[in-house]
Amino acid sequence: MAGHLRETGISAERIVEMNFESYEFQKMSSDDVYRYVKERIVPGKRMYLFLDEIQRIDGWEDAVNAFRVDFDCDIYVTGSNAYLFSSEYATYLSGRCVEIKMLPLSFREFLYFHGFEVKETHSAFGGMHRQVFDQNGERYELGEAFEAFLRFGGMPGIADVGLVQERALALLDGIYSTVVIRDILEREKRRGQKRITDPALLRKIILFLADNVGSNVSIASIGNTLKNEGLLAEKGREGAPSAHTVQAYVNALLESYFFYEIKRFDIKGKEYLRTLGKYYIVDVGLRNYLLGFRSRDSGHVLENVVYFELLRRGYDVAIGKIDNAEVDFIATTSDEKNIFK
Questions:
Q1: Domain shared by 259 and 326, yes or no
Q2: Which residue(s) pair with 119 in the sheet?
Q3: Do 187 and 310 belong to one domain?
Q4: What is the C-alpha to C-alpha distance for residues 53 and 20, in angstroms, rounded to an integer?
Q5: What is the tally of structural domains in the chain?
Q6: Which of 17, 78, 85, 117 has an alpha carbon within 20 to 30 A of 95's alpha carbon?
Q7: For 244-270, how does the pLDDT look when each residue is reduced to its tens digit (9 = 90+)?
Q8: Helix residue spans in 126-242 (DSSP H)
């Protein structure tokens, strides 16, 4: 966004960027942050403030709210889920904020990030045929590129390491560890809560949900299923975890955007049902990292991809039920409704 502003003629002096992971800003107080910005305000001009990982500063919300009141400025704030979730940002900023949700790359973006271009070529039978070309002019079938997308997923960092399985797995391992260790377990410790206390149980629930993307799942059944499959056989653990415990762990995964839940809608009754929703993992590459590369459940993987494509296109998405018949997706906007089976 800062680059876009510069390209559209906004002078550099009107753009203030502060990354609080940088040593330059780490030891600032909220008062220091306010003074730093105030000293750079250009009188009579709109300012653009970019504050990255600002949650590291105690009382940061006081400074940000003061910027909004005292200066003519647009403010862009990013922060890690290890400290605050999006709903909490809205609370700290008195609801005066707009959340921009980031998803992994779509297939189109995947091609762009990896330097591929789709071109139409003439087929041997006189029709037009779409193929993918890399930066060296080598051509590939579009299906080959899509298979790579289903294999490696849409995490942008993979474009830096290349489509090499070992390097991609190393990058995905780092992302997984960041989400699970920092954004969930460390955050729980920081907040003094004791809902998520068993890393082994958390991982097993992650594996279960990853293995069952696109399947109807109820919270009450997850613990029993894990127990029946022998996945909760640690010494000292008796019986399946309670539905309340499983719900807490699943909620943590939803809050960290590792999984997304989709509700079941009774189309005839026009109401959401409380049972048997579905869960989708944020990136199919992460699923392959967790479960290994396999093709036996490609239908559910494609369903996972379609779900996130619908989200990118601005739809509210539910799964559907008409009497006893299942509908894969009900995608709606304020003026449009689509049913996919």
A1: yes
A2: 131
A3: yes
A4: 6
A5: 3
A6: 17
A7: 888 889 988 988 889 999 877 654 444
A8: 142-152, 158-161, 165-177, 187-191, 199-211, 219-228
Residue 221 lies in a domain: yes
Residue 205 lies in a domain: yes
331 SS3 class: strand
5-39 burial string, b = 16+ CB within 10 Å, else e?
A: beeeebeeebbbebebeeeebeebebeebbeebee
Contact present, 284 and 304 (Cβ < 8 Å): yes
Tens digits of per-residue pLDDT, 274-329?
Answer: 556 789 999 999 999 999 987 677 889 999 999 999 999 989 888 876 667 777 78
Task: Give burial (CB, 10 Å; 0-12/13-18/19+) of 168.
Answer: buried
Would you say residue 10 lies in a domain?
A: yes
Q: Does 296 share its domain with 239?
A: yes
301, 269: one domain: yes
Which residues have CB under 8 Å from 65's CB, separation 6+? 93, 94, 96
| Whole-angstrom distance, CA of residue 78 vs CA of residue 55 | 8
Domain presence at residue 99: no
Domain span holding position 193: 165-340
Q: Say yes or no: 193 and 85 in one domain.
A: no
Whether residue 171 is found in the same domain as residue 292: yes
Q: 117-122 contacts: CB < 8 A, separation 24 or more?
A: 118/142
Query: What whole-number distance in Å separates Cα of residue 203 and Cα of residue 198?
Result: 9
